[in-house]
């Protein structure tokens, strides 16, 4: 297996992101449209948080309600802001961080995506799926 390969070689560079002022309805729409599970939250392209699809599930009553799920979701989403629901204490990596280091971070934490930053500016995102695809390519 290759050694010291930078995460920039496997990260997603064209990142779907939310602005801190966006609402949760927009977030849900982006999750569904792009079939993703994590969206970095930015303010002027500076990373300020990370929202996961699981975060949305935690605040919704989808499992408890059979009828009018969309109405319930919108009502619940209007009760919270992206800033209230997103993770704020982020672990980030730089584009030069090795894939091995990223794998070690993700294996030791309880999240599945890391923002890739240069300074405070978001330049990419790397997920456990990216790591799995990289491993598959090695065989």
Report what the structure shows.
This protein has six helices and five strands; from the N terminus they run E-H-E-E-H-H-H-H-E-E-H. The mean pLDDT is 88. The strands form two sheets. The protein has a three-stranded mixed beta sheet. Strands 4-5 form a two-stranded antiparallel ribbon. Helices cover 37% and strands 20% of the residues. The chain starts with 17 loop residues before the first strand and ends with a helix. It has one domain: CBS-domain. The protein is an alpha+beta fold and 139 residues long. It has helices at 24-34, 53-59, 69-77, 82-85, 99-108, 128-137, and strands at residues 18-19, 38-43, 46-52, 113-118, 121-127. The longest helix is centred in the first third of the chain and has 11 residues, at 24-34.
Structure at a glance:
With 139 residues, this protein is an alpha+beta fold.
CATH secondary-structure class: Alpha Beta
| Intertermini distance | 9 Å
User: Which stretches are poorly predicted, pLDDT < 50 over at least 5 residues?
Assistant: none
Question: SSE string, helix = H, strand = E?
Answer: EHEEHHHHEEH
> How many domains, in number, for the residues?
1
Helix content: 25-40%
| Main sheet: strand order | 1-2-3
Largest pleated sheet:
3 strands, mixed
Classify the secondary structure makeup into a structural class.
alpha+beta
How much is the average pLDDT? 88
CATH topology: CBS-domain
What's the shape? globular
Which CATH architecture would you pick?
Answer: Roll
Total helix count?
6
Q: Tell me the Rg in angstroms.
A: 16 Å
Number of strands: 5
The assembly state of the depicted protein chains is single chain
Fraction of residues in β-strands: 15-25%
CATH superfamily: CBS-domain
């Amino acid at each position: 297996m290759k050694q010291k390969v930078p995460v920039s070689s496997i990260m997603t560079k064209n990142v779907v992101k939310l602005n801190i002022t966006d609402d949760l309805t927009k977030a849900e729409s982006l999750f569904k449209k792009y079939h993703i599970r994590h969206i970095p939250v930015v303010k002027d392209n500076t990373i300020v948080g990370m929202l996961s699809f699981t975060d949305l599930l935690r605040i919704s009553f989808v499992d408890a309600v059979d009828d009018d799920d969309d109405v319930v979701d919108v009502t619940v989403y209007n009760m919270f802001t992206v800033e209230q629901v997103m993770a704020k204490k982020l672990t980030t990596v730089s584009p030069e961080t090795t894939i091995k280091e990223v794998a070690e971070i993700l294996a030791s934490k309880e999240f599945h995506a890391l923002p890739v930053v240069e300074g405070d500016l978001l330049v990419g995102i790397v997920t456990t799926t990216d790591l799995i695809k990289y491993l598959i390519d090695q065989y």
